[in-house]
Design brief:
It holds the Pfam family Tn7_TnsA-like_N. The chain contains nine helices and eight strands. By secondary structure, it is α+β, with helices and mostly antiparallel strands. The model has no long low-confidence stretch (mean pLDDT about 95).
């Protein structure tokens, strides 16, 4: 699923954004329709550099960041596009009329619906897409929000794209901080290899005992492998991030 880059195919008021690359492209060429600076924030928005897709990702809430990290860890996920626009506005206007929903406008011009995440997965049958919406439990139970989500669902169904409303009740700050801790191997510019990862994971598990603090386990493993403690810490984070521990 990729929108054509020819701006003449869309309503004229969308042309300027599309010419700047918003909402089109895939992989590291994709630019989200909405960026952090475009949306009022309560301090929960953020920009994150991707690991597998080398570009800045724009998230409007901590819930979105948490879900992104969970998807980024999956080996079969090959692309993640946030704030993905439905540029088929003629159809979303029809669906809004059908569902009794007020379409978003900027001034007198209709604005696209945006899907929080459009994810590309590699499967045995080939590439497939799935769409995900991220809402707080309170918003998910709001009747007005539910009607807008129905527009997303129906449009995706027509495109044969599975759509799901994510249960975010367990995506709390503890989960986010744990994911950030594991992912910090990337921020520290740790360079993994298959051999180093396998050797570290085996040594760590040989040293592992219940109720022993992580710092002590890392010291033992670092000493055994003759690694600097900081390198052992990043090796542990990488192994955890990639489900090898």
């Amino acid at each position: 699923m990729e929108w054509p880059s020819t701006s003449d195919l869309y309503l004229p008021h969308l042309g300027a954004k599309i010419r700047r690359g918003r909402g089109i492209g895939m992989g590291d060429a994709y630019i989200p329709w909405l960026k952090v600076r475009d949306v009022p924030s309560r301090g929960t928005s953020s920009i994150v550099r991707g690991i597998n897709v080398d570009r800045p990702f724009h998230f409007l809430s901590k819930l979105e960041v948490t879900y992104f990290y969970l998807q980024e860890r999956k080996s079969n996920v090959i692309d993640i596009r946030e704030q993905f626009p439905i540029l088929d506005i003629a159809r979303t206007l029809e669906l809004c009329s059908q569902f009794g929903v007020t379409h978003s406008y900027r001034g007198s011009y209709p604005e696209p619906f945006t899907i929080d995440f459009l994810i590309t997965e590699k499967t045995a049958e080939g590439v497939r897409y799935k769409a995900a919406s991220i809402k707080t439990p309170e918003d998910a139970n709001d009747a007005r929000v539910a009607l807008r989500l129905a527009i997303e669902y129906e449009w995706c169904r027509e495109q044969s794209i599975p759509w799901v409303l994510i249960d975010t009740s367990l995506l709390n700050d503890i989960v986010l901080e744990n994911l950030r801790f594991l992912r910090s191997w990337f921020r520290h510019r740790y360079i993994p290899s298959i051999q180093k990862t396998s050797t570290f994971a085996m040594s760590f598990m040989n040293n592992y005992s219940r109720n022993v603090p992580l710092v002590e386990l890392l010291k033992r493993t670092a000493s055994q492998l003759r690694l600097e403690f900081s390198v052992a810490g990043d090796a542990f984070r990488y192994c955890g991030w990639t489900n090898q521990l």
